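For the sake of transparency, this paper describes our internal protein records without simplification. The remainder of this section carries one protein's record, kept here as part of the documentation:
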Amino acid sequence: MERILSEVLSCLEKLKRKKYASQVFVGFDGFVDTLVRPVRSTGDSEHRYFQSIGEFASYLKGKEGKSCSIELEKITEKLGGNAAIYAQAISRLGIHTKCLGAFGYPEPLPLFQTEESDVELISISNPGICTALEFDDGKIMLSENEGINDLDYERIVRYAGEEPLYRMINESAMVSLMNWSEVPGCTGIWTGFLENIFPRLPKNERKKMFIDISDCSRRSNEDIRQMLELIRDFADYCEITLSLNYNEFEIVSSVMNAGDGEANTGSGQAAGDGTTNHSGSADGLAACDEAMEQQGRILCESCGLQYLIIHLRDGAYAFTKNISYYVDNRYVKHPLISTGGGDNFNAGLVYGIINGMGIEAAMTLGNAASGFYISHGRSATMNELSEYIHMWMQEREVAV
């Protein structure tokens, strides 16, 4: 792990002297997030909060048939949505970002117009509203989609224009498609891109694409299968990195395995030589059992992915058709906030990929970006990321 951390620091030092010309395109959500802590009990001087989702769930179960009242202590109100948070995070590292979505109409709400980031907003609808219940081990997000449900390809073309959209895609070093799960019209948006935008891109250059589908628990199996087929179609034009948390990975794998014809049960022989490459703790990769590794490679092959990323609290995995990687994370016991941690991981990861880092280094940068964010409640600058990684290295040296 020390080797990877040193590699990331060396890359960041070189990139600090670089004049940026990169641009990232991001779409298509937008939420106003209110972050709250559910209060477990109150004393004379301070509140005691529900520390975990399990504790909160047990309390609610005990109130079954009785009703209850729960105080919510507001932490902050901020811009939200996978696309908006990711766009702000990667722009803080010096990448110009064009972000299309639901940030307020006819003008973006002031909440989304942050002066410290280089994000150009193309807003075609009003945002959704999300109340995020924060816990030490995760969050529960309660959403009212409002304007999110208005997003579809026809509206994008009507308000943003197909030619400007083509130019944004063509000029971007990375096309980032976020939050398919919460945007009902997203399948149609992707289809519109495949029919009207991507066939016109220069044939001699495969575009880089990053996809985070978000929590697809509410989507039907048929919806998920259609989404996976569209990713396979994008692979004809792009080198694709798909980023999932473990919940999303389990759902997608289950849908693939339940498909008709040749179901992927995870018990067959994966393509390739079965090589595993891991940095960090020896038992880190042990958590990735053979079935998970097998399924990851099958998903890569089926969807034509360059990389499948699975990000967890204690580390991150990357799968290709042939090789598996694992890198450790720096554990943050009491996060200030958790909503947006995954988006900041994605921003650090993509920043590394755009700038030619190996996948282990890029994932480590993603872990650092996420760790800084949940510890400080904001996205890191380049210098702050370097300082965070220095601290991480020093902690590991002391531990040894």
Summary: The chain has 13 helices and 15 strands.
